[in-house]
Design brief:
Helix content is 64%, strand content 4%. By secondary structure, the chain is mainly alpha-helical. The chain has a two-stranded parallel ribbon with strand order 1-2.
Length: 208
């Protein structure tokens, strides 16, 4: 039989593995940089992927997904507990069981454990897909805010420090604009939410 901790590790990954793809440690607080000398190139870095999840919209999206998948996680945990109970019963039975009875129970437990692991992996995959779908729209809007921020603040080059292909090997905290862009994004979203809904235009030819 497979050790129960392997199944439990898959269960724990159901609501964390997908999230870890989008949420890393929060970017270090940036220190306001001194004005660049005249003619100097202004270069910055941004942790793009973690920043998306650190926006207020990203945090809410993740919380909503965790709430949505919580019943499935509870169901998988209950199945795991039931398997652990069967294992204990088998162990307590000891020599009371015949070889055939023991073999039958071991086979049943193995089958249940395999089915549980498959269900947990499927749930994890569904959760990751749901995160990708929810964060795709946020990523597009965040990129637009980032582009606007860089133009307004005179950056000639900004590198994504969260990319696996990142060439950033050293950067000062002053170069990290992650928190500033997150703040700009949250401000833009708050402003958009506060705007009254547009009144539909009257249909052409409507009676006066």
């Amino acid at each position: 039989m497979k050790p129960s901790f392997r199944v439990l590790s898959v269960l724990a990954a159901t609501l964390t593995a997908g999230a870890s793809l989008c949420i890393a440690q929060a970017a270090s607080p940036s220190i306001p940089s001194a004005p660049a000398p005249a003619g100097a190139e202004k270069i910055g870095i941004v942790a793009f992927q973690p920043a998306i999840a650190q926006t207020k919209e990203g945090q809410k999206a993740l919380q909503d997904l965790q709430t949505k998948f919580a019943p499935k996680q509870a169901e998988l945990k209950a199945q795991s507990a039931a398997i652990d109970t069967l294992k204990k019963q088998l162990q307590d039975a000891g020599a009371k069981l015949t070889a055939a009875e023991r073999a039958s129970k071991v086979k049943s437990i193995d089958e249940k454990e395999k089915a549980l692991q498959q269900a947990a992996e499927q749930a994890q995959g569904e959760f990751q897909q749901a995160i990708a779908g929810s964060f795709q729209g946020i990523a597009r809007k965040f990129d637009a805010v980032l582009q606007d921020y860089c133009k307004k603040n005179g950056y000639s080059l900004v590198l994504d420090a969260s990319s696996q292909q990142s060439n950033v090997v050293y950067a000062t905290r002053a170069a990290d604009i992650t928190r500033e862009v997150i703040a700009a994004y949250d401000q833009q979203e708050a402003a958009a939410a506060s705007k009254p809904a547009a009144t539909p235009a009257p249909a052409a030819g409507a009676a006066k």
